[in-house]
Structure formats: structure tokens, C-alpha cells
Design brief:
With 101 residues, the chain is an all-alpha fold. The chain has a domain of 66 residues. Helices cover 72% and strands 0% of the residues. The chain contains four helices and no strands. 12% of the residues are buried.
Length: 101
């Protein structure tokens, strides 16, 4: 079990062991949190779009390099978390983004 799961489980057990009057009410609606992978893909796509619009070739190259670093980070994150199909899909999306002119 990874450390985050163990921490979450410990916190849930702690909360369940409290007397009912001491428990805080659970949120009634889920928070809308965008997963890290999706944030990174959006950032990479934005950088590729900025690179396409850059007038200075050096700036465009810098933006593409930064986007490539984000791509690597995304792929490592997905592969380490055991999601190769998601990695393939994100790779396809980002490859399409790179091909745009």
C-alpha cells in the first residue's frame, strides 16, 4: 500500500473512532479537482500553442523544450501509477498538438 493510501486510511479510522458529536460533517458536494495529469497535459498544450505563435525562433524552441519536459513528467507519472493506456492516449493527444503548425 502506498504512503498516501495508508495516510488516508489512518485519517478515516481516526475520524470513525471519534464520538458522533465530535465528528465534523463530511462535505455534501464533491470538490471539483482537476487531476495532476490533466493539468500537465493542458500546460503542455498551452506551451505548444504559445510556441506556434512565438515570433522569435529561440523563444519558440524554449517553449517547445519546456513542453517536452512536461510530456516526460506526464509519461513517468502515468507509467509509475500503472496506467499505460492513459499514457498512450495522452501521448497521442500531445503528438497531435506537436504536429499543428
Amino acid at each position: 500500500m502506498d504512503p498516501w493510501t495508508m495516510l488516508a486510511e489512518a485519517r478515516m479510522q481516526e475520524w470513525m473512532n471519534r464520538p458522533a458529536k465530535e465528528r465534523e460533517a463530511a462535505p455534501t458536494e464533491a470538490l471539483s479537482v482537476v487531476p495532476l495529469e490533466v493539468q500537465l497535459v493542458d500546460d503542455a498544450r498551452t506551451l505548444y500553442a504559445q510556441a506556434r505563435g512565438a515570433l522569435d525562433p529561440a523563444e519558440a524552441a524554449r517553449l517547445r523544450a519546456e513542453a517536452a519536459q512536461l510530456e516526460t513528467r506526464i509519461m513517468v507519472l502515468l507509467e509509475q501509477s500503472g496506467r499505460p493506456l492513459a499514457a498512450q492516449e495522452f501521448a497521442r493527444v500531445l503528438a497531435e498538438e506537436r504536429q499543428k503548425r
